[in-house]
Specification:
This protein is mainly β. Helices cover 3% and strands 48% of the residues. The strands form two sheets. Strands 2, 4, 5, 6, 9, 10 and 11 form a seven-stranded mixed sheet that branches. The chain has a four-stranded antiparallel sheet with strand order 1-3-8-7, with no helix packed on it. A hairpin with a 4-residue loop joins strand 7 and strand 8 (78-83).
């Protein structure tokens, strides 16, 4: 069965950086793309960033654009989320997700029900 395992979360201060990793395993095919979502206490899960395994165009929410960068190492079946200039409002559990579907629009990439497999999440806490 497909497994996604996030790592790299932790407790940091505002302005610091973190790099999250998501390792994919268990499947014969890695799917079409990967996404990052986050969920803060008492709030809905929200889209953060996404990209195709093949590379090319990437997608970001307005709240993280210019600060976060999504990338991948296909040989390692790993996707990364580099988070710079972290703010307290970035505090959340971060989840990576895999989609088998050929997503074509920004709306689709940002919709959690379009993803087929999910990791367990990793906590990111940013103090003031």
């Amino acid at each position: 069965q497909v497994q996604l395992v996030e790592s790299g979360g932790g407790l940091v201060q505002a302005g610091d950086s973190l790099r999250l990793s998501c390792a994919y395993s268990g499947g014969t095919f890695s799917g079409y793309g990967m996404g990052w979502f986050r969920q803060a206490p008492g709030k809905e899960r929200e889209f953060v960033a996404a990209m195709r395994w093949a590379g090319g165009v990437t997608y970001y929410s307005d709240s993280v654009k210019g600060r976060f960068t999504i990338s991948r190492d296909s040989a390692k079946n790993t996707v990364y989320l580099q988070m710079n200039s972290l703010k307290p409002e970035d505090t959340a559990v971060y989840y990576c997700a895999n989609t088998l579907r050929t997503l074509r629009t920004f709306r689709a990439w940002g919709t959690d029900r379009e993803y087929d497999y999910w990791g367990q999440g990793t906590q990111v806490t940013v103090s003031s």
